Amino acid sequence: MKKVLVLASFVLISGCVSNKTEIEPKAVGMANPASVYCEQIGGTLEIVDTAQGQVGYCILPSGEKVEEWALYRQKKH
Fold this sequence. Notes:
Blueprint: H1 2-16, H2 33-40, E1 44-50, E2 53-59, E3 65-67, H3 68-76
Antiparallel strand pairs: 1-2, 2-3
Helix pairs in contact: 2-3
C-alpha cells in the first residue's frame, strides 16, 4: 500500500513540473537600410505616425524633407 501511495504521489508531483523553457524572441539586429543611408548623408530621421502606420522621413542638410525609402531608391538607380 505504501508503494502505491509513494508511486501515486510521485506521478502527481511530476505532472506539475514543466520542462518547457520559455524562449524570449531575439531582436533581428538589422538596421533599416533607408534610415542608415539618411544618416550617412548627413540627414536626420523623423518618424511620423499616420492612419496607415509609421512613415520615416529624412530631413536633408538643405532642409528638404524626403520619404526615406524614396531617397534610398533614388540612390540605387
